[in-house]
Automatic annotation (TrEMBL):
SUPFAM superfamilies: PHP domain-like. PANTHER family: EXONUCLEASE (PTHR42924), POLYMERASE_HISTIDINOL PHOSPHATASE N-TERMINAL DOMAIN-CONTAINING PROTEIN (PTHR42924:SF3). InterPro entries: PHP_domain, Pol/His_phosphatase_N, Pol/histidinol_Pase-like. It comes from the Bacteria. One of its GO terms (molecular function) is 5'-3' DNA exonuclease activity. Residues 187-251 form the Polymerase/histidinol phosphatase N-terminal domain. This is PHP domain-containing protein.
């Protein structure tokens, strides 16, 4: 074993520009493979507070390498209350380089693993199998947070020599399942397996999705597409599996829904780098939807800072209903008001579980989409059009309609074309929500609140208004409040029905 010492960020550091702050450290070299089965090098260094977002360790890989294996550790000193401690993410890029959006990406595990390997026929979950070609590879370190004492790390790199295995051709899930024609389909578009920081296999997630009454799910691993080739066996006539990614930047997370198989979306930028639009367009070119996730989450780097100009929808409800979801719901409602005021397109809302491991519940919440069939394209079109509502489980079903006096009617995500003073009847049918309260919300706020539904959980609530009084109406289903003036947690909510002529 040979050792090297980076000794902190010093003279051998070369700063890289054009994306989030990054630097490249001194190169780790290996001797010729002649007569060797395996070689190991260990490097150590210390990163100070205020370190760049990404630190690259170049590794010169000689010819004849069969496998690259990397293990790492770092210190976790005690820190004062309220001060972030050390957290160091890791991944790797091959000889094609680390250019933003380039072809060199070979895997990312964030902070979920302490070691990984890459070879032609296999790789650690989160990493991409493929040829190990000679050249300069880069181990990518992401100092997510650094303690005041600094972050000391140790990386052990092992090269195994020999003939490379056969590259396995990936098989992806089909883009169509056996649907029911034009119908309401239930899905969960934000899930994590062991191909990022989850603990469940794709097969386990698919079984939980079926048990939750879901018709479709979306693969959304953090900053890697490595799971795409591992979902085919979990799909079936009863479950459509879309492929995507959760793009986890330092200024917020965005879920790509239903991209082409094998699509990788880079995450190494902040809002100030003005790069997000480029990658939002990449998601769309790959046939996907751009959906900012948990925009008001309180975890470091989770709060959404890129604006919503590129969003196809927004994840308003993420996992168990919490105060940051309530803020996201209010923020989204403000965006609806702005769209009415400015006469521009509106952004639909979604909900997903963001499930990682037990006891996280797959399908709570879930987005229920009116689509022409159970296909990738039809589901995406329904989400993009806002023909959807969000429910805490498959037990809850909603049907919201608005009708005028001459037989005009419109449903969720649609517009009721009536004159400003034409009487409008808003009707909500509910099942599966015992003791919940219905609220009708408009651009003026909450204008109607029902009595609690019966213990059976079923009921019909009607309200009358006009387009001059309410530019849109959306429904909320709330559980009983624990105490005080605040509303109870959501059981379901709908996208709006718009009223009046544009």
């Amino acid at each position: 074993m040979c050792e090297d010492d980076h000794a902190g960020i010093g003279r051998r550091a070369v700063f890289v520009t054009g994306a989030a702050a990054a630097l490249t450290l001194g190169t780790v070299s290996f001797a010729s493979a002649a007569g060797r089965d395996r070689q190991t090098r260990t490097v150590r260094g210390t990163l100070p507070t205020g370190s760049p977002d990404f630190v690259y360790v170049p590794v010169e890989v000689p010819d004849g390498v069969r496998e690259i294996r990397v293990a790492y550790t770092y210190d976790r000193p005690a820190v004062p209350a309220g001060t972030p401690g050390n957290a160091l993410d890791i991944g790797i890029f091959d000889e094609r380089g680390t250019d933003l959006g380039g072809r060199g990406f070979r895997g990312w595990s964030g902070g979920a693993r302490t070691e990984f390997f890459v070879r032609a026929d296999d790789a650690t979950p989160g990493y991409i199998p493929g040829p190990v070609r000679p050249g300069t590879w880069h181990i990518a370190l992401g100092p997510y947070t650094v303690a005041p004492q600094g972050l000391s790390y140790e990386i052990t790199i092992t090269l195994t020599y020999g003939e490379q295995g056969d590259v396995v051709r990936p098989v992806y899930p089909p883009e169509r399942a056996k649907g029911r024609g034009r119908a309401w389909y239930r899905g969960d578009c934000h899930l994590h397996s062991w191909y990022s920081d989850g603990r469940r296999t794709p097969a386990e997630i698919a079984a939980l999705a079926r048990a939750a009454g879901l018709d479709f799910i979306n693969s959304s691993e953090h900053n890697t597409h490595s799971a795409h080739a591992h979902w085919a066996d979990a799909a079936g006539d009863d479950l459509l599996i879309l492929l995507g990614e959760e793009v986890t930047t330092r200024n917020g997370h965005v879920v790509a829904i239903g991209t082409d198989p094998g699509t990788f979306v880079d995450w190494r930028y902040r809002a100030r780098d003005n790069r997000f639009g480029r990658f939002a367009r990449q998601i769309r070119r790959a046939g996907g939807l751009v959906v900012p996730a948990h925009p008001h989450a309180t975890c470091i780097g989770c709060n959404w800072k890129f604006g919503f100009g590129e969003a196809d929808a927004v994840e308003v409800w993420n996992g168990p209903y919490t105060p940051d979801d309530e803020v996201a719901l209010a923020d989204w409602d403000g965006m609806l008001v702005a769209s009415v005021r400015d006469g521009r397109d509106w952004i639909p809302a979604m909900g997903s579980s963001d499930s990682h491991r037990d006891p996280d519940v797959v399908g709570s919440p879930q987005t229920v989409v009116l689509a022409d069939d159970l296909t990738r394209e039809a589901i995406q079109e329904g989400i993009r059009a806002g023909r959807s509502y969000v429910a805490e489980s498959a037990r809850v079903s909603l049907a919201l309609t608005a009708s005028g006096g001459r037989g005009e009617h419109a449903g969720i995500g649609e517009r009721l074309h009536v004159d400003a003073e034409t009487p409008v009847t808003v009707r909500l049918e509910v099942t599966g929500a015992p003791r919940c309260t219905v609220r009708f919300v408009t651009d003026q706020g909450v204008l109607f609140t029902s009595a609690p539904l019966p213990v059976s959980g079923s009921g019909v609530v009607e309200w009358r208004t006009t387009a001059s009084y309410a530019a849109y109406v959306r429904a909320e289903l709330r559980h009983e409040a624990a105490a005080g003036p605040l509303p109870g947690a959501l059981a379901a909510f709908t996208n709006p029905v718009f009223l009046g002529r544009r």
